[in-house]
Amino acid sequence: MAIENSVDDNTISQENSTSEDNTTSDENSISDVDLTSKPKGLTRTQKFILGVFGLMVFASVASVVGLAVLNGQQQVTGSTKPNTNCTRLEVGAQPSTGGPAYTQSFVDSDFYGCEAVGMKEEVGIALLHFHKVAVRVSSRDGINFPLTADYSDSRVNLSIMKAVITAYSVG
CB within 10 Å: which end of the chain, N or C, has fewer? Predict the structure, then answer.
């Protein structure tokens, strides 16, 4: 047992001397640091990068929240009354851009197509059919459909977004 104790004592004394050496080297590295100086802070470039990153995060969050709100709106907001801001063209008048004179069917299609803008799809199409105007849906919810190249001045091409007529063209 005496031999084991002496080995343990030697090991302990070696560990103590090693830990003392480490403490001394740690003290030297700590004393090299000036604790009285204030931190410098961020450079202009770092501040700019953080600002841009913050704006990007804000814009991303805002767009996600906006999309969530828009997706939550399932109601159709179109009107059942015709648009009152439409003016009727004169039959026989020349377009300012040139071309043939306006015909009666073109004038009617243009006027009633204008009245249908902002109306619910079903109501607007019923209005156009009532006035004997042919209807063709050219786009729905941002998807454009292929159309034939034939022209008819008694037909209106409608753009529809979420069951509301948003635009028209005669042809």
Answer: N
Report residue 88 as tokens: 């009727």
152 with 121, same domain? yes
Q: Distance between CA 9 and CA 81 in Å, rounded?
A: 102
Supply the range of the domain harboring residue 64: 43-74
Structure tokens at 100: 């043939």
pTM over 0.90: no
| Domain-embedded: residue 137 | yes
Number of domains in the chain: 2
Q: How many CB atoms lie within 10 A of CB 55?
A: 10
Is 24 domain-assigned?
no
Judged on CB neighbours under 10 Å (0-12, 13-18, 19+), 157 is buried
The alpha carbon of 164 is separated from its chain's Cα centroid by a whole number of angstroms, namely 21
Quick: pLDDT tens for 54-70. Answer: 888 888 887 777 766 66
For residues 91 and 105, the answer to whether their CB atoms sit within 8 Å is no
Classify residue 8: in a domain, yes or no: no
Q: What is the mean pLDDT of each run of 10 residues along the chain (171 residues)?
A: 48 47 51 63 86 86 71 64 87 88 92 92 93 93 90 92 92 88
